[in-house]
């Protein structure tokens, strides 16, 4: 799994002219499921995201987590995070997880974040979504579960 975290002062997802998810201070989290991913990856990423110290403390130092600031998360599925562009000019998405596997894993990731005390809103899986955000910083981080697994082993 791969996530793109964007620190936001507000973010929302709109589908068919209706807001399906919205947050204020927190993280917009784009989630891409790869073929072969499972609940272990979803849980590891949720744990990392919930505790990652990427928000300013009272002295302006980047020293607080999403939980520390009482922030929320807006989780949006995005299979294009696993686009392969090495050959040709048309991206290949064969590395992305199939929708019937990806949808429950994105849901599991969101539920795992909730279990860490993070309020979570979501987009709508498979829908054409408009995502609006105010990126604070801007502050954007990419985390891949494969990198987390490698760091645990070595």
Give a verbal description of the structure:
The chain has about 150 residues and is α/β, with parallel strands linked by helices. The protein is about 30% helix and about 35% strand. The chain contains 4 helices and 8 strands; from the N terminus they run βββαββαβαββα. The protein has helices at about 40-50, 65-70, 100-115, 145-154, and strands at about 1-15, 20-25, 25-30, 55, 60-65, 70-75, 120, 130-145. Strands 1, 2, 3, 6, 7 and 8 form a 6-stranded mixed beta sheet that branches. Strands 4-5 form a two-stranded antiparallel sheet. Strand 6 (about 70-75), helix 3 and strand 7 (about 120) form a beta-alpha-beta unit. Helix 1 packs parallel to helix 3. The chain starts with a strand and ends with a helix.
Gap between N and C termini, in Å?
19 Å
Counting DSSP E segments of at least 2 residues, the number of strands comes to: 8
**What string gives the helices and strands in order?**
EEEHEEHEHEEH
Biggest sheet statistics: 6 strands, mixed
Overall CATH class: Alpha Beta
Helix content: 25-40%
- Stretches where pLDDT falls below 50 for ≥5 residues? none
CATH superfamily name? D-tyrosyl-tRNA(Tyr) deacylase
Number of domains: 1
Work out the helix count.
4
The CATH level-2 architecture is identified as: 3-Layer(bba) Sandwich
Rg on CA atoms, Å: 15 Å
Amount of beta strand:
35-45%
The CATH topology assignment is D-tyrosyl-trna(Tyr) Deacylase, Chain: A
* Shape field: globular
Helix/strand-derived class?
Answer: alpha/beta
Task: Write down the overall mean pLDDT.
Answer: 93
């Amino acid at each position: 799994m791969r996530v793109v975290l964007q620190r936001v002062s507000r973010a929302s997802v709109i589908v068919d002219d209706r807001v399906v998810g919205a947050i204020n201070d927190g993280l917009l989290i784009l989630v891409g499921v790869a073929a072969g991913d499972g609940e272990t990856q979803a849980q590891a990423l949720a744990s990392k995201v919930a505790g990652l110290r990427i928000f300013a403390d009272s002295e302006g130092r980047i020293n607080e987590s999403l939980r520390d600031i009482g922030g929320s998360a807006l989780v949006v599925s995005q299979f294009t995070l696993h686009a392969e562009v090495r050959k040709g000019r048309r991206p290949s998405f064969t590395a992305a997880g199939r929708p019937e596997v990806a949808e429950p894993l994105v849901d599991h990731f969101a539920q795992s974040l909730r279990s860490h005390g993070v309020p979570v809103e979501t987009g709508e899986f498979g829908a054409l979504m408009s995502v609006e955000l105010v990126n604070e910083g801007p502050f954007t981080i990419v985390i891949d579960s494969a990198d987390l697994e490698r760091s645990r082993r070595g």
